[in-house]
Amino acid sequence: MFPDSVPQRIAVLGAGSWGTTFAKVLADAGRDVVLWARRESVAESIRDRRENEQYLPGVLLPAGVEADTDFDRALDGADAVALAVPSQSLRENMGVFRDSLPPDVPLISLAKGVEIGTGLRMSEVIARVGHLDPARIVVLSGPNLAVEIAAGRPTATALACTDHDRAVAVQHACATPYFRPFTITDVVGAEIAGTGKNVIALACGISDGLGLGLNTTASLITRGLHEVTRLGEALGAVPATFAGLSGLGDLVATCSSPLSRNRTLGRRLAEGLGLDAALAAGGGQVAEGVVSCRSVRDLAHRHRVDMPITEAVYRVCYQHLPPTAMIDFMMDQPHSPE
Ligand SMILES: NC(=O)C1=CN([C@@H]2O[C@H](COP(=O)(O)OP(=O)(O)OC[C@H]3O[C@@H](n4cnc5c(N)ncnc54)[C@H](O)[C@@H]3O)[C@@H](O)[C@H]2O)C=CC1
Ligand SMILES: O=C(CO)COP(=O)(O)O
């Protein structure tokens, strides 16, 4: 089956490593893509040298990816729009894009995070700021380290939308021999899983930086999955989602890979860098777990969900808890059934 509604011209708003990689996936899937970049230097590098030298160096972008700094032009004639700016700037950007978004087209949400202050998930920010039907929003989330995908290494992902047909249309639009999307309907689960795993990856990076072993990593992944699932359930998510690609899949990839910016940041904290220095060492690329440990902790408090790993990461990032004491904090939690 190849539905008539498969988008052909797609605007990707945000030319960081994930927006650029997803633009390549779409072009490799046969779509016409316009990638909106904030900065002319990024658009120029893509136009003139077919490479995003700042965010995805060494990757040749196909001719199907055009780059533009004018979002009105990028959105003109688009029959799907992917949003690829970091979570905490999505509100501001949606406010600017809102009036130029084509009516009725699917909006593909790529950011992983929960908004500070409001506790809103990214699809909620998009729907509220854009005054649009949540059923138009398709959340893409899974084990999707950009650099691997850009190199054509196979992976799978989940496309979550309450409107199944819309998810199927996007599934057909972005499927390639190396990128295999599955559809689900649990938007809440996909978003909470994708947000929570960055915090757990930070904890795994800290553990790794302290020279602890795979038992520690496996314990963090398993208990991390448990606490993120509990939060998801409290918010109405389907527990099975957390065993899927946007749950366990993404958690394992991010917690295990040296390519993960969140895990790398955790390592740097364990090696003695302060938060600002550790962020600066990341070259300006976003590590969402730093903000998400705050917004997820706030949500957990609001819904009375116990999240000791998230709490420990929050204390390291914002309350000067030494990384070694983070492990003690977790090991000293009251004993409980699994
Ligand atoms: N890189 C990856 O492997 C993956 C990233 N993601 C998620 O995608 C989102 C974007 O991440 P990346 O592209 O990796 O980040 P990045 O750090 O590589 O790039 C961020 C992009 O956003 C732009 N940006 C920063 N602040 C902005 C603002 N205030 N307004 C507009 N644009 C702004 C930057 O210029 C840059 O183009 C994040 O939520 C991340 O968690 C999801 C899956 C995979
Ligand atoms: O979301 C990601 C992989 O699925 C990317 O993780 P990092 O932001 O930690 O690199």
From TrEMBL:
Enzyme nomenclature, EC number: 1.1.1.94
A GO cellular-component term linked to this record: cytosol
Main location group: cytoplasm
Location of this chain's protein in the cell: Cytoplasm
Residue sites binding substrate per the record: 112, 261-262
GO molecular function, one term: glycerol-3-phosphate dehydrogenase [NAD(P)+] activity
Reactions performed catalytically: sn-glycerol 3-phosphate + NAD(+) = dihydroxyacetone phosphate + NADH + H(+); sn-glycerol 3-phosphate + NADP(+) = dihydroxyacetone phosphate + NADPH + H(+)
Matches recorded under Gene3D superfamilies: N-(1-d-carboxylethyl)-l-norvaline Dehydrogenase, domain 2 (1.10.1040.10), NAD(P)-binding Rossmann-like Domain (3.40.50.720)
A GO biological process held by the record: glycerol-3-phosphate catabolic process
Keyword Lipoprotein: no
Binding positions for sn-glycerol 3-phosphate per the UniProt entry: 112, 142, 197, 250, 260-262
Positions of the Glycerol-3-phosphate dehydrogenase NAD-dependent C-terminal domain: 186-327
Family membership noted in the UniProt record: Belongs to the NAD-dependent glycerol-3-phosphate dehydrogenase family.
Function: Catalyzes the reduction of the glycolytic intermediate dihydroxyacetone phosphate (DHAP) to sn-glycerol 3-phosphate (G3P), the key precursor for phospholipid synthesis.
HAMAP family: NAD_Glyc3P_dehydrog (MF_00394)
Protein name stated in the entry: Glycerol-3-phosphate dehydrogenase [NAD(P)+]
Source organism of this protein record: Nakamurella flavida
Gene responsible for this protein: gpsA
